[in-house]
Write a structure and sequence with these properties.
145 residues; alpha+beta; five-stranded mixed beta sheet; 5 helices; globular; binds coenzyme A
Length: 145
């Protein structure tokens, strides 16, 4: 089974053009030159944004992001925000997405978060429910041109 060969770890600069940016195209268009992507990674590391990748023989085939927010409320507790879950189209439906979200959730817990939250489409509710998440409130957005 492929999942047994998958290793989850932190994103590094070598991953960017070895499949990471291509993997993200499952989620949205990726129109960023490699040099810019290196800068984005540097900024994310500085800002404490955790980017995890699932590697198949050193090639990234999936990713998830975790942002940890320090709150003023809840006694200064921390909230984990899970973002940008994506699995390369050739590797979907093999358990990699679930393994990534489980990993980010465990990291949020290990980093002291009292909860982890994410937004998803109705279609993906079963994916997150099977990982222990439940429906709560509504997602809202505003787009800036
Ligand atoms: C959503 C996504 C990350 C799932 O990754 P994956 O590796 O294919 O998912 P898994 O194999 O771990 O699936 C686990 C469960 O999630 C559910 N699931 C996964 N993809 C699904 C889909 N497209 N529609 C409905 N349910 C889905 C199923 O219940 C599945 O369990 P099953 O295999 O027993 O049926 C992947 O399809 C993807 O990259 N999609 C495009 C980007 C995206 O929508 N990201 C999510 C943002 S919230």
């Amino acid at each position: 089974m492929l999942l047994a060969k998958i290793a989850i770890g932190d994103l590094n600069a070598h991953d960017l053009d070895r499949g990471f940016l291509e993997t993200l195209t499952s989620l949205s268009e990726v129109e960023i030159p490699l040099e810019e992507a290196v800068k984005v990674l540097r900024n994310r590391l500085r800002a404490g944004v955790f980017t995890y990748v699932a590697r198949n023989e050193d090639r990234p085939v999936g990713t998830v992001t975790l942002l940890v927010e320090d709150k003023f409320i809840h006694g200064g507790g921390k909230v984990g925000h899970i973002e940008d879950v994506a699995v390369h189209r050739d590797y979907q439906h093999q358990g990699i997405g679930a393994a990534l979200v489980r990993h980010a959730t465990e990291q949020a817990r290990a980093l002291g978060c009292y909860k982890a939250i994410l937004n998803c489409s109705d279609q993906l509710v079963p994916l997150y429910e099977q990982l222990g998440y439940h429906h709560h409130d509504n997602g809202m957005r505003i787009d800036f041109k």
